[in-house]
Amino acid sequence: MDLLDILIYISLAILLLAMLMMLYRVVKGPTTADRVIALDSIGIALISVVALLSILLDTTLYFEVILLLSILAFIGTVAFSKFLERGEIIQHDRDNDL
Amino acid sequence: MKQNSKRVNDVILQTAAIIIFFIIVIFSIDLFFAGHYSPGGGFIGGLMTSAALVLLLLAFDSKTLANVLPIDYRLMTASGLLIALATGLHSVFLGRPFLTHAYGKFDLPLLGEQTLHTAIAFDLGVYLVVIGITLTIIQTIGESE
């Protein structure tokens, strides 16, 4: 086990701690916005975990997982922020709806 | 919390969504063709394409999407199932077990010698079914009334 592996394990432990804290905020969070932002940050932390694992296992097959997770996290962010802003996610007629 | 003014201006979201839509569609086509030896395939490619369409639904509205892409998603699901079933059944008519696939090496122009496989037709069926079902579900439960 060389230095890089030790550093990757330390980073994974830190990310695990961060995700546990975010999970606490998802359960406890006083408002909807807190829960939404915490879920969003869990997605970002998950991307980092997959990237660290792909360094640890020395494979490039996980890169597509990273791209896919980041696209889904982006769409989730857009949907959550539209929900917070407008109150509905998919509108039928944007110009004429009240 | 509901603002409901007609003068909501989200030009940044709409401009970005048009560009990101094509990036996601290209990635989904890449995933669709990568599916034989590496991660990917018809299912996840279809999910990515429907994610791109959902992004357009979020940035614009369902009326705009119906104008831009006049697709009946139920028809799309049915044709995908038909393609997958036909790919499975063609081996039965040739006297082989159900879902036996055929492949061979072909000399294609520009691409050189490539292996073509009938599993790609089955995957195309899965792709169409996933897009059709996902967008039917989202449009059914996403509409306000």
UniProtKB/TrEMBL annotation, chain A:
Q: Which UniProt keywords apply?
A: Antiport, Cell membrane, Ion transport, Membrane, Transmembrane, Transmembrane helix, Transport
Residues that span the membrane, as ranges: 6-24, 36-56, 62-84
Where located? Cell membrane
- Chief subcellular location: membrane
* Annotated InterPro entries: MrpF/PhaF-like
Query: Could you list the residue ranges forming a coiled coil in this record?
Result: none
Signal peptide location: none
- Entry annotated with the keyword Signal: no
List the Pfam families: MrpF_PhaF (PF04066)
Membrane topology, as annotated? Multi-pass membrane protein
Domain of life, per UniProt, equals Bacteria
PANTHER family assigned: NA(+)/H(+) ANTIPORTER SUBUNIT F1 (PTHR34702), NA(+)_H(+) ANTIPORTER SUBUNIT F (PTHR34702:SF1)
Query: Can you tell me which family this protein belongs to?
Result: Belongs to the CPA3 antiporters (TC 2.A.63) subunit F family.
Q: What is this protein called?
A: Na(+)/H(+) antiporter subunit F1
